[in-house]
Recover the amino acids of this structure.
């Protein structure tokens, strides 16, 4: 209990208070050898009511640890977490509210459906603990099971159900007590692609309809972009970028974010002109590139080292040199390989000493009339100046360097390999 | 799933000569014979007469009043010490697997206790600690009470009573409960419990409503194990029970094998009854674990979020350390002091301590204890080696064949575990001691008995060792052209070696410390530690008893320690893993 704890418990001023406020959160693990691993290094973040925040990052970035700290399953080393201004965790003040008293919901990667309880009993459990009257439990569980599409499974046990069905039970269980916040620990990574797609859409529909705030941890950037209101990109225990999916994708703040989210072509170069009018010029190994000066990070000066990043879908491939419109960059190259990907096509084109990836819909208007080329054919690449971004190298925050020192020990999922088989090199005694 | 490569390799060698298969099946059949023949032969010898059934032995048992007393006493032990051991074991398991009271040392030591301090040493150690007059604890307690004005000439503790015996039964059985339950908790998907916490349940609710129900099969098998071990337990009732004048079925059976004129028939009849009871418990356990409504062992196990116990943490740790002391340091210290005293007394006078007993005991040639000790050590080495070779071959062969073959062979090695040691001992005595085998008084009959009784432990150790070797490692060797023999020699065996060594240590230790089979199968010509122990107990020569107990403890502890240390040094395996290998095979 803290002074600023609203004793009334009313929800009147709801919109102003974040559902979750994280301030300077730190979590260190002591390794068995004695060393200390920093899993979360000073994360601050507000999660607004009704908002779906996806925490995205490579394994070992600390995202699962962050989620488990919010849940109360892990005790943070430092920093504070508030839920609606109620202090639920403080490393410095030694406050740690146990998970059951935080009244959040949570979905786990391994479903965590209790095997000794029927589907109904699983979903009724949170209500029983809240001493909800029996008749009401019956009614609410029935309704929520219908809502997630497993209304007919109430009497079944989990051992007879598929992964998708089990995850629906887990979803129903986390929703049934109407928590304001639901935490998702990679809930869809164990189900197969088709079910994942369905569940993702249902999850999103449910979230918009019920209006809970969600914190969703995943390493799958496509999933993140599909469901997030805001994406939080983490690396090495630090938040490197926060923003709506289109912004994180379209305007990555660092080389790491650019390459982690989606595919990117990257060239290192030097700024030759900042182009106060509208066009900046960067010298790269394949020649000079002109880009919209708005796509240059503010404060960039002539002579700065930058990484130029270009998304493959911004690169058009054509057999004939396109007419110059003064707004695009054009290179000639040789087609090395192409891949049919269903709704689009990937191209790999040699330009000078480099390869550039391009992507095009096979019938897209801006593509050449034919989308199929022969390997070794001479082609032209066109990239609009507005689609090229330049990210400063070795300036600002350290994480801007995508190839940074990533020698952190992975402590992300908290899941050591369960079966310790003797395997790999070096274990065979002679 | 047999890999096509392995199948090809096998198919090819089948046409020439499947040596592995021949050896595997020969060993399996020999083992099966060694298990079943004595049981069946004994049954027919006792219950048939000239071609018709004859149940006079059974009638004699049912008209013997002391049988009913023994059965009642065993029943009392099973419904008191059994559940108590399961409860304490489960609490310790939960504390070590799920709370911040976890102590690496304790979780490693606890399952090893029966190996480091064999039950006979534990029982006698506690006699020295809490005997009515000369028990050390009583000595200290009395002088303590003296200070507050209470004068006692004996007590306050008395090990030779029902509470005393149940206490020692309980502390001796705790590791069995702990082992099964802690393994189940360790292998359980921890998100099951985390989901409960996130649903609003506190730690207590979570234990009762999620953790325990989810590991119900483990609790059922722990109960079964406790019944089997508890019924067969011989050391505690034979020593402490005799002080308290409490006979159990185990003592009753062994006595029947030793009386003259022979009452062997009756011991067989009681053994048969034991088999029926254990079979019934086994069926109950099967029923409880049916239906798959429980957590799958071997699922994804994560690092559990530890329950913070707050001020209870130190209490929990104190209790666990206290338990470890009560089953190891205290009895061993008592044995040592009595071994160093010329005669056993409640107070420790450093000036009279000497090594005389030990010298007299170990260094007089042809002294019975010395012969017995060497016999036991020899049997331990031979039995350990033989059991592990047989188990390694059978398990490797079964794993390669899979399917029915595997189930039959692996099942065979486990059968003795479901039969009381007493029953196996009696059957081997009846079937093999006399005509036509005439093995009475030989070390061979002891070796065969030990081999059958401890085959389940050897087999589990071999399974653990085999399980450490991933199938791909062998398939990789086949793919690169390695023959099966070559693959076994260069890949499989080296990788299994640490696990096999741990299994060897385990079998060695249980053979040296064995009391039950030794009491039944050993006579004046083939004395072993177990039988000489009982003789010394009968003679009341406590200094010798203590010396023998101490020597056994030191021997077994150092063998376990050396093997764990040696196998832990190589490669990536930690001593803890080996401790777990051994521990998981204890049951």
């Amino acid at each position: 209990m803290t002074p600023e704890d609203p004793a009334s418990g009313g929800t009147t001023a709801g919109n102003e208070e974040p559902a979750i406020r994280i301030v300077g959160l730190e979590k260190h693990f002591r390794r068995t050898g004695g060393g200390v691993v920093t899993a979360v290094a000073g994360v601050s973040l507000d999660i607004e009511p009704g908002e779906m925040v996806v925490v995205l990052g490579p394994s070992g970035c600390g995202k699962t640890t962050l989620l488990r700290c919010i849940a109360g399953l892990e005790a943070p080393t430092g920093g504070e977490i508030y839920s609606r201004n109620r202090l639920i965790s403080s490393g410095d003040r030694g406050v740690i509210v146990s998970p059951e008293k935080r009244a959040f919901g949570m979905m786990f990667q391994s479903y965590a459906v209790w095997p000794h309880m029927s589907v109904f009993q699983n979903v009724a459990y949170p209500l029983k603990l809240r001493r909800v009257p029996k008749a009401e439990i019956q009614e609410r569980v029935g309704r929520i099971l219908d809502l997630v599409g497993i209304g007919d499974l109430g009497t079944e046990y989990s051992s007879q159900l598929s992964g998708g069905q089990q995850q629906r039970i887990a979803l129903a269980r986390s929703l049934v007590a109407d928590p304001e916040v639901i935490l998702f620990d990679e809930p869809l990574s164990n189900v197969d692609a088709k079910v994942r797609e369905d569940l993702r859409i249902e999850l999103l529909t449910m979230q918009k309809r019920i209006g809970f705030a969600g914190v969703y941890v995943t390493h799958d950037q496509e999933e993140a972009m599909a469901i997030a209101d805001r994406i939080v990109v983490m690396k090495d225990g630090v938040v490197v970028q926060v923003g709506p999916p289109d912004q994180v994708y379209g305007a990555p703040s660092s080389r790491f974010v650019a390459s982690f989210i989606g595919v990117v072509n990257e060239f290192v170069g030097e700024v030759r002109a900042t182009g106060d009018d509208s066009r900046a010029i960067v010298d790269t190994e394949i020649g000079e590139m002109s880009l919209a000066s708005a796509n240059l990070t503010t404060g960039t000066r002539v002579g700065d080292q930058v990484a130029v990043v270009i998304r493959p879908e911004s690169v058009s491939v054509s057999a004939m040199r396109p007419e110059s419109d003064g707004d695009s960059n054009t290179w000639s190259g040789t087609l090395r390989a192409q891949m049919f990907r269903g709704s689009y096509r990937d191209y790999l084109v040699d330009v000078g000493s480099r390869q550039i990836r391009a992507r095009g819909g096979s019938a897209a208007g801006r593509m050449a009339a034919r989308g199929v080329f022969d390997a070794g054919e001479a082609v032209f690449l066109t990239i609009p100046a507005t689609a090229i971004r330049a990210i400063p190298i070795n300036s600002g925050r350290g994480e801007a360097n995508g190839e940074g020192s990533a020698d952190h020990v992975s402590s992300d999922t908290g899941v050591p390999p369960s079966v310790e088989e003797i395997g790999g090199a070096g274990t065979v005694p002679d | 799933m047999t890999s096509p490569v392995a199948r090809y390799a096998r198919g090819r060698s089948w046409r020439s000569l499947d040596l592995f298969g021949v050896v595997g099946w020969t060993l399996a059949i020999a083992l099966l014979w060694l298990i079943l023949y004595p049981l069946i032969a004994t049954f027919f010898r006792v219950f048939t007469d000239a071609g018709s059934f004859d149940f006079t032995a059974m009638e004699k048992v049912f008209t013997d009043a002391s049988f009913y007393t023994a059965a009642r006493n065993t029943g009392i032990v099973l419904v008191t010490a059994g559940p108590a051991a399961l409860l304490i074991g489960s609490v310790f398991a939960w504390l070590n697997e799920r709370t911040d009271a976890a102590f690496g040392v304790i979780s490693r030591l606890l399952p090893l206790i029966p190996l480091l301090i064999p039950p006979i040493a534990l029982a006698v150690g506690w006699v020295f600690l809490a005997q009515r007059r000369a028990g050390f604890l009583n000595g200290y307690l009395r002088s303590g009470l003296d200070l507050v004005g209470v004068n006692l000439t004996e007590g306050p503790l008395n090990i030779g009573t029902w509470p005393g015996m149940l206490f020692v039964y309980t502390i001796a059985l705790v590791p069995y409960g702990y082992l099964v339950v802690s393994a189940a908790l360790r292998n359980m998907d921890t998100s099951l419990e985390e989901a409960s916490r996130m649903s609003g349940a506190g730690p207590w609710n979570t234990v009762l409503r999620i953790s325990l129900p989810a590991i119900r099969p483990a609790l059922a098998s722990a109960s079964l194990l406790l019944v089997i071990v508890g019924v067969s337990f011989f050391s505690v009732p034979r020593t402490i029970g005799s002080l308290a004048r409490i006979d159990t079925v185990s003592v009753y059976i062994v006595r029947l094998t030793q009386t003259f004129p022979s009452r062997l028939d009756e011991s067989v009849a009681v053994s048969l009854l034991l088999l029926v009871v254990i079979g019934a418990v086994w069926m109950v356990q099967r029923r409880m674990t049916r239906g798959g409504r429980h957590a799958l062992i071997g699922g994804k196990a994560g690092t559990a979020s530890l329950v913070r116990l707050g001020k209870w943490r130190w209490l929990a740790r104190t209790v666990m350390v206290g338990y470890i002391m009560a089953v190891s340091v205290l009895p061993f210290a008592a044995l040592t002091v009595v071994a160093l005293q010329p005669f056993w007394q409640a107070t420790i006078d450093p000036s009279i301590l000497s090594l005389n007993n030990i010298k007299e005991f170990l260094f007089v040639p042809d002294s019975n204890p010395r012969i017995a000790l060497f016999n036991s050590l020899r049997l331990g080495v031979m039995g350990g080696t033989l059991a592990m070779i047989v188990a390694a071959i059978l398990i490797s062969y079964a794993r390669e064949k899979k399917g029915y073959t595997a189930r039959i062979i692996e099942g065979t090695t486990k059968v003795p575990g479901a039969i009381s040691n007493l029953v196996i001992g009696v059957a081997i005595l009846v079937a093999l001691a006399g005509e036509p085998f005439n093995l009475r008084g030989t070390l061979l009959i002891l070796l065969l008995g030990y081999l059958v009784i401890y085959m389940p432990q050897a087999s589990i150790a071999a399974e653990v060792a085999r399980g450490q070797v991933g199938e791909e490692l062998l398939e990789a060797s086949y793919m690169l052209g390695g023959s099966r023999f070559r693959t076994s020699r260069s890949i499989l065996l080296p990788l299994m070696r640490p696990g096999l060594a741990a299994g060897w240590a385990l079998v060695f230790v249980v053979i040296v410390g064995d009391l039950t089979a030794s009491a039944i199968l050993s006579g004046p010509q083939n004395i072993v530690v177990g039988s000489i122990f009982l003789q010394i107990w009968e003679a009341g020569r406590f200094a010798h008893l203590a010396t023998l107990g101490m020597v056994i403890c030191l021997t077994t502890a150092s063998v376990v320690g050396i093997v764990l240390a040696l196998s832990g040094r190589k490669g990536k395996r930690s001593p803890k893993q080996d401790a777990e290998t051994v521990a998981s095979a204890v049951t």
In short: The longest strand of chain B covers residues 48-49. Residues 65-98 of chain B form the longest helix (34 residues).
